[in-house]
Amino acid sequence: MSLQGNIIGYIFTHKIDKDVQILNIAIDTAYQHKGYGERLLSYYMDQLDEDISIVLEVRKSNFPAINLYLKFGFSELGIREKYYNDGEDAIVMKMEFLTHGVV
Ligand SMILES: CC(C)(COP(=O)(O)OP(=O)(O)OC[C@H]1O[C@@H](n2cnc3c(N)ncnc32)[C@H](O)[C@@H]1OP(=O)(O)O)[C@@H](O)C(=O)NCCC(=O)NCCS
What we know:
Layout: E1 2-3, E2 6-7, E3 9-16, E4 19-27, H1 36-46, E5 53-59, H2 63-71, E6 75-80, E7 90-95
Parallel strand pairs: 4-5
Antiparallel strand pairs: 1-2, 3-4, 5-7, 6-7
């Protein structure tokens, strides 16, 4: 994602057939809390077919990201214990049957 020629964010995904995994999404710290993360995720999801399912892992403590995903209609599927190198658990979140835009 670029703003006036500067890259301020990105999203990395992995897609096999109808299954998408969001590997990472990030907005430059200086540009966070201004709606760019929401716009970037919306832009990406608008490119997908409606019968796609999306999964992702997010740190249990990462409330900004968890709230972003909840806002888009993701729900918690389970926990992967000690998923990260520092021992923190991951929450697995999933969205079945994509709904476009923010719900
Ligand atoms: C997660 C991230 C991409 C959100 O991007 P952003 O541009 O700051 O988010 P937006 O301004 O578009 O906010 C969209 C929604 O996200 C949630 N959110 C964003 N920042 C938040 C915060 N500090 N606290 C709680 N919720 C937050 C809210 O639900 C917000 O909607 P609202 O404004 O109506 O409350 C950004 O915080 C980031 O880059 N974090 C570091 C990288 C990271 O952790 N990525 C996720 C990996 S799984």
